[in-house]
Amino acid sequence: MTLLRGDALSAAFDHGSTTYDRLVAASPGYHAHLRRSARRLGLADGGRGLHVLDLGCGTGASTAALLAAAPHARITGIDASAGMLDRAMAKSGLAGVDFVHAPVEELADRLRPASFDAVFAGYLFRNLDDPDRTLDLVRDLLVPDGRLAVHEYTLSGSPVHRAVWNAVCSVIIQPAGRLAGDADLYRHLRDSVVRFDTAPAFAHRLRRAGFADVRVLPLPGWQAGITHTFVGRATAEQGLRP
């Protein structure tokens, strides 16, 4: 299957937004893992005085995780799907968040360089046409030594973890997606994970983009070896491309 990209992926998320929260809530650890990844940003004093970007905020699950980790931060949430953003903006607990409807590719024209102290990206990078370009953008949006945390499905490279992912998708995730009328979206989910970087490869991608102190941190439960947190620090140096 050809992966969904650009407008086709946004449209699929628009359609799937009505059932998205219900489906992800059925995944053990989904929200707890997002909160753990948000805490791994290590924002002091509850984020007081800091501006944090939630890149690819979806229906606001990652935004809620950021608020739990940094309740005093100013948070901006951005997503390319209007349907997903509508769900986020309707949540009373996210009333203080600035939400912006825009694809990642337009952010360089809409946001000022060095305007964020930290960036959080949940389940975003495997959905992008050009992850390297987005990492360059993120580095430019961060203040010097600004922090990045990426929460993403990235297989460890072990055949066992790949087999677990495919089994869970075949038995649980894709049947649930078909019942919700979103078969293409959840087929894309399965395939996008299988085709994307392994965890070591994505960590290398971050270092190549100019991020320092990159660490790959595991998450527990059935997602062990399947979902990871990546943390790093922005540097002034340009990334090194092969």
Q: How would you portray this structure in words?
A:
- The chain is an alpha/beta fold.
- It has a domain at 27-156 and 197-234: Vaccinia Virus protein VP39 (Rossmann fold).
- It is built from nine helices and seven strands.
- The protein has a seven-stranded mixed sheet with strand order 3-2-1-4-5-7-6, with helices on both faces.
- Helix 1 (6-25) packs parallel to helix 4, helix 2 (30-39) packs across helix 3 and helix 7 packs antiparallel against helix 8.
- The mean pLDDT is 95.
Blueprint (SSEs and pairs):
Blueprint: H1 6-25, H2 30-39, E1 51-55, H3 61-69, E2 74-79, H4 82-89, E3 98-101, H5 107-110, E4 116-122, H6 131-141, E5 142-153, H7 159-179, H8 183-195, H9 199-208, E6 211-218, E7 227-234
Parallel strand pairs: 1-2, 1-4, 2-3, 4-5
Antiparallel strand pairs: 5-7, 6-7
Helix pairs in contact: 1-4, 2-3, 7-8
